[in-house]
């Protein structure tokens, strides 16, 4: 039997000067960066666009927040680098992850990072925010949502749909790369692959409908 747990998803912005690659953003104004976790597990892998390989390599080499960078893949539109953060940069990331948080997505542009992270609960998010604030890091929270909980978490989801969504999030089904497959998730819940797929599909439809329709106009 799967036990429901509370999870808090937070999206927030942090200046690159308080995290990583501030020098590179200053040097290359059109630079855009996307975290890619599926290539390397030891150091962050970053997709970088907006400049050529030579310019990006030079910028990373001169960036105080970067200890080392290796170009892995070069395509016409973007470049993939393994980037080893400096000691100071690792300390900043440690402050983010001390509450057992998981980085779901991270994008950088125009001197800012926007992150989507999953925390065990709202208290863990609050503790992380306070820790960053005490360290002088400017944090702008964009959105906070909660996944899981009792029947009031979302009144239009059935208990089975809610359980499927919580299990999918907790087991990393929505992460990139996925930490579990549909088959493994179905086995965890004790249902068939088809039943899980149907539950998730109907849950998606319900959530999208609730998000797009004006308040008070949802179908009964």
Structural class from helices and strands? alpha+beta
Shape: globular
Order of helices and strands: EHEEHEEHEEHEHHH
**What's the total helix number?**
7
Low-confidence stretches: 149-155, 214-220
Distance between the termini: 30 Å
Give the number of DSSP strands. 8
Q: How much of the residues is beta strand, in percent?
A: 25-35%
Radius of gyration: 20 Å
Question: What fraction, in percent, of the residue positions are helical?
Answer: 25-40%
The overall average pLDDT, rounded, is 82
Largest sheet report: 8 strands, antiparallel
Integer tally of domains: 2
What topology, given as strand order, has the largest sheet?
A: 4-5-3-2-6-7-1-8
Describe this structure in words.
- The protein is α+β, with helices and mostly antiparallel strands and 220 residues long.
- It folds into two domains: 9-145, no CATH class; 149-212, Arc Repressor Mutant, subunit A, CATH 1.10.10.
- 36% of the residues lie in helices and 27% in strands.
- The chain contains seven helices and eight strands; from the N terminus they run βαββαββαββαβααα.
- It has helices at residues 22-27, 53-62, 87-97, 122-134, 159-170, 182-189, 193-212; strands spanning 7-15, 32-36, 45-49, 66-74, 79-85, 102-109, 112-119, 140-147.
- It has an eight-stranded antiparallel beta sheet with strand order 4-5-3-2-6-7-1-8.
- α3 (87-97) runs antiparallel to α4 (122-134) and α6 (182-189) crosses α7 (193-212).
- The longest helix has 20 residues, at 193-212.
- Residues 157-208 form the HTH bat-type domain.
- This is Putative DNA binding protein.
- Residues 11-144 form the Bacterioopsin transcriptional activator GAF and HTH associated domain.
- InterPro entries: BAT_GAF/HTH-assoc, HTH_bacterioopsin, RNA_pol_sigma_r3/r4-like, WH-like_DNA-bd_sf.
- Keywords: Transcription, Transcription regulation.
